[in-house]
Amino acid sequence: MRLSILGIALSSNSYYCASLSLIPPISTSSSSSSSLSFSKKFTPSASGKRNLVLRGQSVGFESELKPGDLMESEKEFPEFNRNLYPSIEPYSSGFLKVSDIHTIYWEQSGNPNGHPVVFLHGGPGGGTAPSNRKFFDPDFYRIILFDQRGAGKSTPHACLVENTTWDLISDIEKLREHLEIPEWQVFGGSWGSTLALAYSQSHPDKVTGMVLRGIFLLRKKEIDWFYEGGAASIFPDAWEPFRDLIPENERGSFVDAYGKRLNSDDQEVQYAAARAWTMWEMMTAHLFPNNDNIKRGEDDKFSLAFARIENHYFVNRGFFPSDGFLLDNIDKIRHIKTTVVQGRYDVCCPMMSAWDLHKAWPEADLKVIQDAGHSANEPGIAAELVAANEKLKHIKKGA
């Protein structure tokens, strides 16, 4: 049986047991993007029209459209901006000593009296960038960026001592208190989504809403997929230089073999391993290769922090007590309004993790970008991230 709805042909079992909203392509530049949204409500499209929500059943599709729903949704969800905001500069910045060893860099931009939002960067070890500010309306948001331990401008650089997930969660709280913020919105992608989930589960009363991208739950199967040969089937050309740095007799665990080299007493050995590790990730982070991103792998300072800290966390499985720790604790944050944005062809953090999170947490909106990989800077992902912040802004204004 086939059913054609709104001009789109769907198999009756294509989306079994999932609420499906069909969203038209979103144009943010010369590129266009399309997404699937899994939720129980109408989702605003780029044109401002409401999208019909369908529920997949084993016997076909059942429409959830009811009389009056369109009018209600028009009131609830206006047309959201999906364009990145212009570049801005911080209005304040500084360094916060969070332990006897570590000092973290922080900055604030946007509206000093606006709604606070904290940006949690990826990696771990990736650090922040000025472009991270552009996902947020600077008239509404008080935008807080900080570099996690050992990353970016934080010191000491690439340091692994006292550098765990729980240390970072403590740092986030110390920064919140230092800036005298009672509660804030949390935004994180890739490893930033891992940290956002862990932080919000530890301090659910401090989080007003979340926007997550490229879900990474730091489970063994996710690490094995990307670092032990799974993703090599899609990027064999990028994989071979990463593989070939390691002798055949040590290839039983690339994560362990790289860990040995990234912690070598020989700095040149460290740098060589860091470049190879970082280049592998940068070459796979976009649906289409991005040369500017790939060049980051040639920066020894960036690569050393990025590779050493990532490897440190992965060897230690995120310092979580169990493989499914984040999924097992979803009940603590089920009430937090959250949007999850996931590229369909994300090789670094494949969609299986976002889907597992969606099944454990169906109350969160899942936006699947059909023509995107991992990077937050891909047009379709960037558009949905901005729109997700706009939605939380709209909710906050109406509260």
Automatic annotation (TrEMBL):
| Biological processes annotated in GO | proteolysis
**Which chemical reaction does it catalyze?**
Release of N-terminal proline from a peptide
The organism sits in which domain of life? Eukaryota
Q: What is its EC number?
A: 3.4.11.5
Q: Which Gene3D superfamilies match?
A: alpha/beta hydrolase
Give this protein's Gene Ontology molecular function annotations: aminopeptidase activity
GO annotation, cellular component aspect: cytoplasm
Indicate where this protein resides in the cell. Cytoplasm
Can you give the residue ranges of the AB hydrolase-1 domain? 116-378
* EC top class named in words: hydrolase
Q: Does the keyword NADP apply?
A: no
What keywords tag this UniProt record?
Aminopeptidase, Cytoplasm, Hydrolase, Protease
- Spell out the InterPro entries in the cross-references: AB_hydrolase_1, AB_hydrolase_fold, Peptidase_S33, Pro_iminopeptidase
Per the record, the similarity remark reads: Belongs to the peptidase S33 family.
Mind telling me what this protein is named?
A: Proline iminopeptidase
Question: Which organism is the protein's source?
Answer: Prunus armeniaca
